[in-house]
Structures
1.
Amino acid sequence: MRADRIFVYGATVGLVVDRLVGDPRRGHPVAAFGRAAAAVERLLWRDDRGRGALHTAVCAGGAVALGALASRAVRRSPAASVALTAAATWAVVGGTSLSREARLVGEALAAGDVEAARARLPHLCGRDPQSLDEQQIARAVVESVAENTSDAVVGALVWGAVAGVPGLVGFRAVNTLDAMVGHKSPRHRRYGWASARLDDVAGWPGARLTAVLAAIAGPDPRGAVRAWRADAAKHPSPNAGPVEASFAGALGVRLGGTLSYGGRVEHRPVLGGEGRAVEFGDIDRAVRLSQRIGVLALVACAGARLALGAMRGRRT
């Protein structure tokens, strides 16, 4: 079986499994990678970019190498290759868990239980929930759904289409490293620089595809494109900017503004300035948009992979 078909079949099965069962509560492969990366950090940490780059190379390179070895071990069996791709896809995507956590916060807000919403928010993003009111919590959830649609679903599929299982696990490894050490805390300002920059590079194509698909699948395509063009560059992240701006325009809401991470307050530009303030009902709208984007991303990546495989076949 050709490699392009192995990816298409495996990625489809993996996404279906994720939709049906979500992430396991214990023993998740990404959590195991996080523990290994934390152990490497304890060995290597210095307030130095070079040490951080070595940490990134060891952890991300190790994940890619492990994916390549596993693919090589099953390459003679199409069924095993499809199963491995499906398992890797299920392990690295997180669309169902993202939707579940977002909706739990939305349900708490709908019930008027702001404290329960605050308690649940850290499962979704790293903001300080105690300083947020109902509207700010809803806005934080919508922003997290937008950004994680790119990070937890679309980006992984893009790199899976490009490089198979090594691409799938490599992208999730890079994204996880950025979440662990890429933020500008005093400890990781230098040490996490390489992880943050590599995540910017790896996330670039997935973020743009997510923004395009948000415009296609959202209720206001013109608004999505307009907000993307007008506001994306204002965001401090080169990848979160297009995604959040496109979501804001598609949903007709305003994102951005003041937020707090770990006691550090940031004042970010407003995205989708023509829209209204986010309400708790917009959380479900964002989740449904995210789910449509996930399906369209699979179609786009599978189609591109099959087209590339057909072109290569004609050349040979």
2.
Amino acid sequence: MSTTKKLAGVALAAALGVTTLSACGGGDAEDKTAGASDAPKSKTVTLVSHDSFNVTDTVLKEFEQQSGYTVKVLKSGDAGAALNQEILTKGSPRGDVFFGVDNTLLSRALDNGIFTPYEAKGLAEVKPEYVLDKEHRVTPVDSGDICVNYDKAYFADKKIAPPQTLDDLIKPEYKNLLVTENAATSSPGLGFLLASVGKYGEDGWKDYWSKLKANGVEVVDGWEQAYNERFSGSAGGKKAKGDRPLVVSYASSPPVEVLYGEPQPAEAPTGVSTGTCFRQVEFAGLLKGAKNEPGGKALLDFLVSKKFQEDMPLQMFVNPVTKDAALPELFTKHGVVVEKPENVAPETIAKNREQWVKAWTALVVK
């Protein structure tokens, strides 16, 4: 979900690079606990992340005050780029915890052995379906659904029911209406490809995409272009005179349209085709060779705490993974619950991702 927070636009943009998310302490403070031989030398704990990590200042400061650690966030591009850097620096990591590896990249991270196992305090509250690594090398932090979104006004004006399933998208009434992202260059684009693999299997997804191409699907490089330029239902798309009323985005997109609408609408102008979704789960892990291992463990505990889990939806527009975390009213009023998203096992993705993307590119783009 490395592109998820882009849905919020400039309002949620965070400075890139190393950001100290604390009002106290300008640098690494030496531990002054007398006689504490096992105390860490530094009271700074560094979180390496993709660019979309965000947390409310007051929530983070509460953790820092309670734990005694100062948190620094090292933002490193999109999820794939950030993970690649950690693999290259394996054993001598740039930080203590890595956040942002999702189920499409999980096996790659685990196979490269960049994490130290740690069972976070509070893991018992995480819903079992999100615990994909029984060795606890990674801890589930959030989930989100990549889904087709639709422009409500377009379909109301045309008196056409919006599509609800992947099968619907290849019907004649939806010809030349869908824009999606390139699966080779975009996280939601890859997720949509995986949704088709989950639905139609390894033997059937190519036939589906052949039909989708024949039905006029448009492919663009990334989410920003698809959602804010080509999609007629978003605020950005309206300004850009986008003419595609269907777009691959996220189930959390409609609440964002409400939150940042000017003026704020009473109802989301966009809807979600709930039978088109692929579920992403994001994880964090203690990096092998971390300089501040106790601080890293405390930070992982914090990421699955109720305080962080309930703060997260309006900061990163993703869903909590713990049983006790409540969603904000914006999500419950304007969002949707995807009951049966498509899933593909991480090990299956790892084994086939490259060849699937190459085959998809040859079939759809070239």
3.
Amino acid sequence: MSRADDLPHPHPHPHLPEPSPAPSPTPARRLLLKSALAAGALAATTPAVAHAAPSAPAGRPVAAAPYANPLVRHRADPHITRHTDGFYYFTATAPEYDRIILRRSRTLAGLGNAAESVIWRAHPTGDMGAHIWAPEMHRVAGKWYVYFAAAPAEDVWAIRIWVLENAHPNPFRGTWVERGRIRTAWETFSLDATTFTHRGTRYLSWAQHEPGMDNNTAIWLSEMSDPWTLTGPQVRLSTPEYAWERIGYKVNEGPYVIQRNGRVFMTYSASATDANYCMGLLTAPDDSDLMDTASWSKSPVPVFTSNDTTRQYGPGHSCFTVAEDGRTDVLVYHARQYKEIDGDPLDDPNRHTRVQVLGWKPDGTPDFGVPVADGTAAARGTGV
């Protein structure tokens, strides 16, 4: 599938421009961020077109509400989890790439206007000093953990996976302890870690460049001995092989798992982070050995792509949560509202967090539909 003009980039990741001498944004980028964020703040004052789900009597679930997209502006790589305390917790990449933020709400729609707290900031020098990307917050063994990507302030493209821990039941309180870096098989570009359990075993999946491979990043899986330590081998589940995974850059990244209907489904994102960004799907039987690569099958076509009719571009870096009714699956992702980007996509802050109901086909596989248009997202992403 490779083309003669599609040579490996000097940095093994689709997001990366040429190295800059300093981790701070350039003046032009600062102006872009300032103007775009000001526009987003203005837009946020517009009355929402959808309302949060109403409160239900104790012990009864509330109905799933329609959602107004964009749900959260200027927040890419979103992660939403619904905890047993009844709150939805939201974190995502801030466009300045310098901090980890957290919101919570009793409803999904409420996240859009929820107060935002900074729970951790990049170091001024040394490790974890630059490119704070794609945080995910998970509850593991009674503690909160945030998995995120970061680079040294002095070497901003040497991005690796790091972990924070908070033992307090309320992640807005207590102390976030730096548990260090997750050690993988190679000292290469790695990011987008997610964790899940399957049949009593905890796993980590992430994106990483493999030395000697003609790609930017592939999707990897390993078992874990604790929330920040891999154990045993790491196996490659997917590498960019189809043309739609190799536009601009040869990328598989942003894995996330949902387990339904006797199968384990893993979404991931592919190609450059412009309008070509899209989602692929891996599937394994629930009773299979997930560390056996033969257990996994890969969709030969993308499952979620840009759509000119709804004017949504570059949908990806997804996760899943559940609606207020406790039953309806919800797809969470980011996308832009326009196709053409001035300059490097990394310098464009307008990837907004979006949500829509995830459908299911008669054969038990997920039906992603298309990314819905701005405004109220009804039942699912049909584009009508």
